[in-house]
């Protein structure tokens, strides 16, 4: 009897796990939230597909943040799309929003045509917009709303350079040593001229911090510099180091 119960229990467990497996295999459509206006709701922001189908419109706001950062892209109908326009101030100023950060792709703030402006009906009251300087979004808000510039974090950071620690001359050789920095490559150039004219270049891997330059001319001074390469970008050249004559 005991054995039988065990058997049935096992059978039940197997059936259960099988149904679970099948259940997991059936794709469940992710529930999309809808706002009271019937628009798709993303973090309190209502969106709809733009007529062109390649971007979204911001329709309304149902959240309660003081500062609303409009995302750079939204997922809608299986597409990842940038926002291009606001339909109107539907819930933003009403719900106490004071600041809206706009992605560069927003090029229209909805109903702000001349008639609306004349009627004093320009919406977004008491809201300051944050935009990138020179962006479409700046143009879109410029005429009728206070705005401030965002600090541009997309600007490429300059590649960090290095410095030559030592340059020792031994006969026709010179031994160089430079400071290790994070980079992909080091590039060394040396010349008999301080302005680096007719210089020769040597490239070293990121794990090297020294180099022996050969076949230098006797009784000649040389000048040497190092720079780093990260990705496709180079740092500035280091200060010129003199390789004394021998
Ligand atoms: Zn809504």
TrEMBL record:
Keywords, comma-separated and alphabetical: Signal
Protein name: Fibronectin type III domain-containing protein
Leader sequence residues: 1-24
Top-level taxonomy: Bacteria, Bacillati, Bacillota, Clostridia, Lachnospirales
Classification via InterPro entries: FN3_dom, FN3_sf, Ig-like_fold
Domain Fibronectin type-III: 155-246
One Pfam family here: fn3
Superkingdom as given in the UniProt entry: Bacteria
Gene3D superfamilies: Immunoglobulins (2.60.40.10)
């Amino acid at each position: 009897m005991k054995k039988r119960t065990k058997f049935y229990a096992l059978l039940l467990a197997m059936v259960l796990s099988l149904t679970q497996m099948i259940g997991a295999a059936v794709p469940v459509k992710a529930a999309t939230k809808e706002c009271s206006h019937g628009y798709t709701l993303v973090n309190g922001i209502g969106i709809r597909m733009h007529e062109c189908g390649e971007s979204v419109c911001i329709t309304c706001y149902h959240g309660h943040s003081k500062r609303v950062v409009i995302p750079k892209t939204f997922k809608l109908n299986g597409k990842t799309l940038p926002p291009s326009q606001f339909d109107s101030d539907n819930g933003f100023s009403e719900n106490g929003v004071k600041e809206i950060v706009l992605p560069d792709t927003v090029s229209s703030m909805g109903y702000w045509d001349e008639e609306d402006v004349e009627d004093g009906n320009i919406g977004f009251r008491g809201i300051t917009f944050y935009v990138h300087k020179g962006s479409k979004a700046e143009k879109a808000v410029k005429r009728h709303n206070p705005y401030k510039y965002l600090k541009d974090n997309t600007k490429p950071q300059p590649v960090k350079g290095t410095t030559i620690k030592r340059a020792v001359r031994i006969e026709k050789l010179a031994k160089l040593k430079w400071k290790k920095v994070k980079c992909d490559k080091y590039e060394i150039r040396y010349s008999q001229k301080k302005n680096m004219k007719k210089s020769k270049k040597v490239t070293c891997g990121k794990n090297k911090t020294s180099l022996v330059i050969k076949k230098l001319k006797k009784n000649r001074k040389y000048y040497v510099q190092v720079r780093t390469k990260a990705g496709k970008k180079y740092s500035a050249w280091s200060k010129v180091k003199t390789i004394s004559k021998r």
